[in-house]
């Protein structure tokens, strides 16, 4: 079945004429969550209607009302403050760090569990994710290049640049038990990182130790982004952290004959914890602005990926809008894997449709 035709969206001016007698709500009756890549951005550049969509929510609407929204992405690799600053410059809209929910932002809720335990953080460039993890409250953060610095024979196919050694901690991992492996962002060296995860979980957390029973010495593994594909500025979708997870599990099964006896947690869209976390943030934004602690009656997820954005929103009981500027290709003739509440040509049309449906009906 072909995707249903896009309905004509009312322009902001026509909406203004239709609600001249309607009172302004005292508290916003809805909130928005936007994916970033493929919805607001195409690689480093904003999509044509992204700025206008956010301006409407910033108050350029018939009620002159600010409507709460967050940017909910399976991307990451930076602090929320750094990403807010970068996106603000690109989009021309002032974004605040608390509006940015990256794949690993939810790990702020895990710092109490692992604050004083050594954790191995994977992904990102250089030492950025160590800084992100430390900003969340993790106090003993190590990376796979740290392991390579300790013993280069762990992965003999890579050499450490001498300039990188100066900023890295000197740690004896044969005497340091790793309590958890946290895959914050997409790893840059899959072979090295798969090898080191295997070393950690098979030795009960102490790299180089004899292999032990996983059930008696479990090491938790957390993956923050299940996306198999994502949309960049390249014409075709790229593989993401979900592909890394599949690769790791395939290698683990080939070596041990087992699928995954180790404990692991999956965050990121479309998982329920990520959507609950986003809803909590939206409610807090409303409370900070209006003093209201009431749940939002309606939340709209605007996304381009049916497998993550739409599936997660539908499961959370949100309304979902699938835009045609990212992963989903309406020209393919195939329906989306998960049916959205509505389909829109772009993010501005999605916002206008949601406002007309909720505020102006």
Automatic annotation (TrEMBL):
Domain of life assignment: Eukaryota
GO biological processes: glycerophospholipid biosynthetic process
Record's GO cellular component terms: mitochondrion
SUPFAM superfamilies according to UniProt: HAD-like
Name recorded for this polypeptide: HAD-superfamily hydrolase
Species for this entry: Marasmius oreades (fairy-ring Marasmius)
């Amino acid at each position: 079945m072909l995707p249903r035709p896009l309905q004509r969206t009312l322009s902001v001016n026509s909406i203004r004429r239709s609600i001249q007698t309607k009172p302004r709500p005292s508290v916003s009756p809805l909130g928005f969550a936007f994916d970033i890549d493929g919805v607001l951005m195409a690689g480093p550049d904003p999509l044509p209607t992204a700025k206008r969509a956010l301006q409407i929510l910033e108050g350029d609407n018939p009620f002159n009302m600010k409507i709460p929204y967050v940017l909910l992405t399976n991307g990451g690799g930076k602090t929320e403050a750094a990403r807010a600053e970068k996106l603000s410059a690109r989009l021309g809209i002032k974004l605040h760090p608390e509006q940015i929910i990256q794949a690993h932002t939810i790990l702020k809720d895990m710092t109490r569990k692992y604050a004083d335990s050594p954790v191995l953080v994977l992904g990102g460039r250089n030492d950025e994710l160590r800084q992100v993890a430390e900003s969340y409250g993790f106090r003993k953060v190590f990376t796979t290049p740290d392991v390579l610095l300790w013993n280069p024979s762990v992965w003999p196919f890579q050499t450490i640049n001498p300039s990188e050694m100066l900023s890295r901690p000197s740690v004896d991992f044969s005497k340091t038990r790793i309590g958890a492996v946290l895959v914050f962002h997409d790893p840059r060296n899959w072979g090295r990182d798969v090898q080191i995860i295997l070393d950690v979980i098979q030795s009960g957390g102490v790299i180089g130790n004899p292999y032990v029973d996983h059930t008696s010495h479990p090491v938790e593994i957390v993956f923050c982004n299940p996306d198999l594909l994502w949309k960049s500025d390249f014409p075709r979708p790229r593989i993401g952290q979900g592909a890394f997870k599949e690769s790791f599990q395939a290698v683990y099964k080939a070596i041990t004959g087992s699928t995954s006896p180790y404990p692991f947690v999956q965050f990121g869209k479309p998982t329920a914890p990520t959507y609950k976390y986003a809803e909590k943030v939206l409610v807090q934004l409303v409370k900070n602005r209006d003093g209201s602690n009431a749940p939002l009656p309606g939340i709209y997820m605007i996304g381009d990926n049916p497998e993550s954005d739409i599936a997660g929103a539908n499961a959370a009981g949100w309304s979902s809008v699938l835009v045609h500027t990212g992963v989903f290709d309406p020209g393919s003739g195939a329906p989306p894997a998960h049916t959205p509440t509505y389909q829109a040509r772009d993010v501005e049309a999605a916002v206008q449709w949601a406002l007309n449906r909720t505020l102006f009906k």
